[in-house]
Amino acid sequence: MASFHLSNTSVQFGQFHALKSLHIDIQPAERLALIGTSGSGKTTLLKLLNAQITASQGEVQILGEKVDTLSPKRLRQLRSHIAFIPQHLGLISNLRVFQNIMLGRVGKRSTLGTLRDLAMPADEEMQKIFDILNSLGIAEKLYQRTSSLSGGQQQRVALARALYQNPEVLLADEPVSAVDPARARSMVQLLNKIASENKLTLIMSIHNIELAQEFFPRVIGLRGGEISYDGTNSQLDPAALERIYKLNTDELSQ
Amino acid sequence: MSQPPPHRYPKSLASVIGGKRVLMVLLVVVLFSCLYLAGIRVSSLKPSEYGLKLSYEFLVAAVQPALSYEAGPPSADAPPFLLKVLTALWLTFQYALCSMSVALVIGFIGGFFSSSSWWPENPNRPLKIALRGFFLISRFVVTLGRSVHELIWALLILTALGTTPLAGIIAISIPYGCTLAKIFSEMIDEQAGIARETLSSIGAKPMQNWLFGCLPLAFTDMLSYTLYRFECALRSSAILGFVGIPTIGYHIVQAFEDFHLLELWTYLYTLLAMIILSELWGKSIRARFNGQIAEKTNACKNPSLKQLKSQRPKSWWLRISGGIALATTIFAWLNIPAARYPLSWQRRLSNLESFFQQIVPYPVQKSGDWADAWPWAKNLLAESGTEAMLMTLYIATAAAIMAGVGAVLSMLWASARLNRMQSFETYTGNSRTELWRRRLTRTASHFVLLIARSSPEYILAFLLLQIFGPTAWPLILGLAIHNFGLMGRLYSELVDNHPAEASKQSLLAGGNRVQTYFGAILPQVFNRYLLYFFYRWETCVRDSTVLGMLGILSLGFLITDAKTRLFYDNLMFFVLLGALLVFIGDMLSYWIRAKLRQLDHS
């Protein structure tokens, strides 16, 4: 069973066609980079794969389930198996680091259960969180207020939250766009290592072509909401990159 | 040759109000128009001979506040004077604390129903209609509750239920609870976008989104606002003394009527001290929540979970403060003083029933036909209602403008960044005299602003009325002084937190403090100044509805007059007229502030 199956899928916002007739199959434990210019549809595609938005046309299957037939409850259950790291990380800055990570399981816990987790966390759950943070090199930040952490440390907290969720799929929307090249590289490397060790499906949108080619076996290039390239990283040649990135005059004036 | 593109005029508030200089001139014109229309002349702003004598004696008394009864104990069983002062102070504090605890409950419940961030993402039609219904009802109740001033609520409750110690608590709780509800709902809804994206993408229910996403993000702002409202509650509790509830305001009036000016100053000093201490306490709590005071971080290398747990950041100050606040609130509730003339509940219910019968317009009581209410209302409006309403508006507007202009100018001395030797991270010379001059100016300005905002406008107006006599000036000045202090604080935060680049450039180009303020800082923060100005103007309208209770023709005067004459239908009409005025003021200010925010973001 594929992790994701998109067949002739389009997404339209009013008159604007954000994604056009996509055909994509993504297998479990695949590691895939989404590349393309700003506005090419990368974030929209990730949101579609997270069922945050629905397709205007075509079929979308996530973890074997057709999205348009799901009840709200089933949809939430489905999302609880998919970790999503948004571009701005989406951390609750006032909460402590362990509380933010605890919220990774919010979709699998009742409201009262989550309240108890945040106020009086169980020892075994704290041990799990400590182990995750330890593997990411920031264990000592466990009880710190999240807003007091540096940008790089906050990225690791967002990753820890995703790992604590124990997901089948990890979606990341340009998580390294705002950091220096060395930190970006180490973060992408870490995400890939974690994904291969835990056999997670990893889909990441990224602007850095070098990192995409180096770490992701499969690359999808989007241009104007259409797939311009879908293949292995080794086949991503300058001609393919030019097709993805070459801007025409209209785009430049925007 | 190609034609140049046509010049497009911005369709914004800026195009209507013109440039900043035009607006400043406009505000001064509005100020003088208000004074002229209200029949207030600058020439009448001079104390009478009696007023001058009184002011002199009043100021002399300031340096020797009483520590014992000025004219000996009033009776053999009278408590020592300082004990009497402390009892009045505690009662003021007790009413404020009990009121705020009820207001917080109202604020949370009202805030929840007045916010839309807990709604499901795509509700079905019947659910959507039900949610919108709840939302609108909640907003309406919240708006009505806060449109009536706490002093008028106290008057209504005392009239409807008879003397009860709960009257003061209920009177403050209703408008404060509704204000908290409004502000809480806005603070929570502002966070809705981020929380929805974060938690709903991993399967959270809408309620979990609200509880774990929106609420924690809004928490610091909500706490900060609650602490500010507590300071306001202390002031409100003090002025409840003016309608007979024995808080410190009651003793201030008594001391003045007995001409015990030394005792009066003791009450004023203790009240100011309590308000200033509560502001400083609030400031220390806020600093710990918004990260101004950094938490202790763990210094060990490769710590174990056990080590981390035992060394996790703890703020003893927050814990002790929270514990004391909780214990004091419980103690305050358990020790509410009994009424001096207790009434049975049957009597209170019968009072209430009779009150509800009597607030129906008199012609309707007689005929039973509500059509008769219209000529009655028209008559009240024509007789004095319209004049009083306009007077209320003029007083509020004149006071707000005076306070605003004063606050804008005061920044030259009050801004911490502008009055340092290292101004805006720029070296401005080395002179010990200049260093001390700047330090002194800064501290003195902060002190003046602190005293101004800590002084309840009602008490200021009451004291000024004795000096200047029965004109509208004391009301305007009382309101202006208090708001000058508040605006000064808000403005200095703006000046000290705005991006430093332009100011730095001005100083580097050889500009002095005045040039830097007017040339570099003011243009950057002007829209935000206006935003706060209109927010305070809205509050001034609300406050000026009650200032008339001191005896100057405005809505408050008509309300007290109707109560004295037992015309409860007239009383209710003027209360509702006041609420309508506040509501219109609210809407106008809301509209202007929304436009200013747009300008600020554009």
Structure description:
The complex is a heterodimer of chains A (254) and B (602). Chain A is an alpha/beta fold and 254 residues long. In chain A, 37% of the residues lie in helices and 24% in strands. Chain A starts with a strand and ends with a helix. Chain B has a two-stranded antiparallel ribbon with strand order 1-2. Chain B has 602 residues and is mainly alpha-helical. The longest helix of chain B is centred in the middle third of the chain and has 42 residues, at 373-414. Chain B has two domains: 80-293 and 317-337, Orthogonal Bundle (MetI-like fold); 387-602, Orthogonal Bundle (MetI-like fold). Chain B is built from 23 helices and two strands. Chain A binds chain B through residues 50, 52, 72, 76-80, 82-84, 86, 88, 90-95, 103-104, 106-108, 111, 114-115, 118, 126-127, 130, 139-140, 142-145, 147-148, 165, and chain B through 120, 194-195, 197-205, 207-208, 211-213, 216-217, 219-220, 289, 291, 294-295, 297-298, 300, 302-303, 305, 308-309, 312-313. Chain A: Residues 4-249 form the ABC transporter domain.
Write the layout of secondary structure elements.
The complex is a heterodimer of chains A (254) and B (602).
Chain A: E1 4-13, E2 16-26, E3 31-36, H1 42-49, E4 57-62, E5 65-66, H2 72-79, E6 82-85, H3 97-102, H4 111-119, H5 123-135, H6 151-164, E7 169-173, H7 181-197, E8 201-205, H8 209-215, E9 218-223, E10 226-232, H9 238-245, H10 249-253
Parallel strand pairs in A: 3-8, 3-9, 6-7, 7-8
Antiparallel strand pairs in A: 1-2, 1-4, 4-5, 9-10
Helix pairs in contact in A: 5-6
Chain B: H1 13-17, H2 20-37, H3 49-62, H4 81-113, H5 125-147, H6 150-161, H7 166-190, H8 192-200, H9 206-239, H10 248-257, H11 261-289, H12 305-310, H13 316-334, H14 345-358, H15 362-367, H16 373-414, E1 422-423, E2 426-427, H17 432-454, H18 457-468, H19 473-497, H20 501-508, H21 513-547, H22 555-564, H23 568-601
Antiparallel strand pairs in B: 1-2
